[in-house]
TrEMBL record:
Keywords: DNA-binding, Transcription, Transcription regulation. PANTHER family: AGA OPERON TRANSCRIPTIONAL REPRESSOR-RELATED, HTH-TYPE TRANSCRIPTIONAL REGULATOR SRLR-RELATED. This is DeoR/GlpR family DNA-binding transcription regulator. Residues 3-58 form the HTH deoR-type domain. It comes from Hwangdonia lutea. The keyword Cell membrane does not apply.
Length: 249
C-alpha cells in the first residue's frame, strides 16, 4: 500500500474513532509500527491529527484529551477526586484551576449535579460538556499550548469579576510554613486571583507534594479551608497540618 493511501485511511479512521493506536494501525495496514509512527508524525506536522504516546487523537479531541499514560499517580488522584466531590452541593458556583488532579476531579462529578463552574483549563471545560446540568463558563485569554490553559492579565482581570462559593486548586507544593507555592509566576498569580474571589479555598494535593516549597508563593496555610490528599486522615504525614487547624480530607 502506497503512503498516500495509507495516510488517507488513517485520517478517515481518526475522524470516526477520534483516537487510534499505532500498534492496531500497523496490524490493520500490514506495515511496521515505525512506518505508522512516521505517518503520524507527518500528519501531525500538517495539522491533520495530534500525535500522542502510542498513537494519535483528532485535533479536536486534543483539546480535552489527557493520555492516561502521562497522568502520573492516577490512583492517588482518583482518591482525591472522590473526597473532593463530597464538598460540592447543588447551586454552588465554583472555580477550578488546571492540572490532571482537577481533571480527575471533574470526571467523577455526579451527572445530576447542578452547579456553575468557572475554569481557564481547556481539557476541564471540554470534559464538563458531558455533564448536562453543569453550567460551564470558560475564562478566555492567551492559550499556553503545552498546558492547554489560558494565561495572562486578561484571565486575572476576568477572575477578579467573579464571586464564587469555593475554588479548587491543583497544588504544586504545600507545607505548613510556606503554604501553597508554585514553580511558575503566572500560575501563582492565577491561583491568587482565584482565592481572592472565593468564599472557601480547597487545595487538591497528592502526598508526594507535601512538605515541599517552590519559588512563587500563592497563599499561606491559614488561607486554605480544606486540604484534600490521597492519604488516610490519620497518616502521620498529615499530623502537622491538622495541628495548624486546617480541615484535612
Amino acid at each position: 500500500m502506497v503512503k498516500n493511501e495509507r495516510q488517507r485511511i488513517i485520517i478517515d479512521k481518526i475522524r470516526v474513532e477520534k483516537k487510534v493506536s499505532s500498534s492496531v494501525l500497523a496490524e490493520e495496514l500490514s506495515v511496521s509500527e515505525d512506518t505508522i509512527r512516521r505517518d503520524l508524525n507527518e500528519l501531525d506536522g500538517k495539522g491533520l491529527l495530534s500525535k500522542i504516546h502510542g498513537g494519535a487523537v483528532s485535533t479536536i479531541q486534543k483539546l480535552y484529551h489527557y493520555n492516561d499514560n502521562v497522568i502520573v499517580n492516577s490512583d492517588k488522584k482518583e482518591i482525591i477526586a472522590n473526597k473532593a466531590s463530597t464538598l460540592i452541593k447543588n447551586g454552588m458556583s465554583i472555580i477550578i484551576s488546571g492540572g490532571t488532579t482537577n481533571l480527575a476531579f471533574v470526571r467523577l462529578l455526579p451527572k445530576e449535579l447542578k452547579i456553575t463552574i468557572y475554569t481557564y483549563c481547556l481539557p476541564i471545560a471540554m470534559e464538563l460538556t458531558g455533564h448536562p446540568n453543569i453550567e460551564i463558563i470558560f475564562i478566555g485569554g492567551k492559550i499556553h499550548k503545552k498546558a492547554m490553559v489560558t494565561v495572562g492579565i486578561d484571565v486575572i482581570q476576568k477572575l477578579a469579576k467573579i464571586k464564587a462559593d469555593m475554588c479548587f486548586i491543583g497544588t504544586g507544593s504545600l507545607d505548613v510554613d510556606n503554604g501553597i507555592t508554585e514553580g511558575s509566576y503566572e500560575v501563582a498569580l492565577m491561583k491568587k486571583a482565584m482565592i481572592e474571589v472565593s468564599n472557601a479555598t480547597v487545595s487538591l494535593v497528592t502526598s508526594n507534594k507535601l512538605g515541599l516549597k517552590q519559588s512563587y508563593h500563592v497563599c499561606s496555610l491559614t488561607e486554605v479551608d480544606a486540604v484534600v490528599t490521597d492519604l488516610d486522615i490519620d497518616n502521620e504525614l498529615l499530623l502537622e497540618y491538622q495541628k495548624s487547624g486546617v480541615n484535612i480530607l
